[in-house]
Hints:
By secondary structure, this protein is α/β, with parallel strands linked by helices. It has one domain (5-136): Roll (CBS-domain), CATH 3.10.580.10. The protein has helices at 5-8, 22-32, 51-59, 70-73, 87-97, 116-136, and strands at 16-17, 36-41, 44-50, 80-81, 101-106, 109-115. It is elongated. It starts with a helix and ends with a helix.
Amino acid sequence: MVLIAEDIMKSLPTPMPSSISVADASKIMVNDKIGYALISNDDLIIGIVTEWDIVSKVVALGKNPKDVSMGEIMNKEIFSATPDTPTMKITKMMNEKEIRRMLVGSNGKYLGIITSKDIIRIFDDYMDDVEEIAEKFGKY
Length: 140
């Protein structure tokens, strides 16, 4: 059985407006236990900000997170896959693009998100299955 994007995606967190400060957005990210924020404009996702963006574009430069908006530091290039994209292809795309999050959907309308944690989870499940099969044949 081939797993596809919609099999492993999680629901999207509530997008944030581009005008929200990095300080306020960071509090929401901590509360929601996520390392990214989706930025929207009129119900359309227009960017993503990761914890790395906050560290490299605000903290490391000595900027005050209360004075910087998420819109100023967001990544406008959004990588996505369609709901029927095989997970192997998603894994390859995430590796090639060096990203840890991929939205599922297109043209600003997204249904879910796949993170590197989701990929690790399905790999772990896969390895459990492989070990179970190997044990049946006395190879483990």
